[in-house]
Amino acid sequence: EVSESDHSATLRLYRALLGLRKTHLAWQDRSRENWTIEELPNDVIVIQYGLKSGRELLVFVSLKHALAERDVNELMPNWQATGQWSLVLSTNEERFGPPGDAAVLVFEKS
Which of 47, 61, 75, 85 is least buried, going by the fewest C-beta atoms within 10 A? Predict the structure, then answer.
């Protein structure tokens, strides 16, 4: 059975993601023209939000293995990132519980 601490860690993750969705301009317009999705090597996908607003977010998702918190250019070596990108959320953060077999990294363009 899942422990109480696992439940609270999952709840903290949901709240953090919902908080980003509510406050970040990239997620305000969820129309199809405002985002793209691409498959990367090693069973990773990246979703780029905020194409119309210029306030972009990159969301890297791996359902098979943990993702190391790296630079955007390391995660997408064939992509020329413009501007500065900073990590705003990682499911590997201690507050969300121990690292598992899946990972989500969210980067914001500054």
Answer: 47
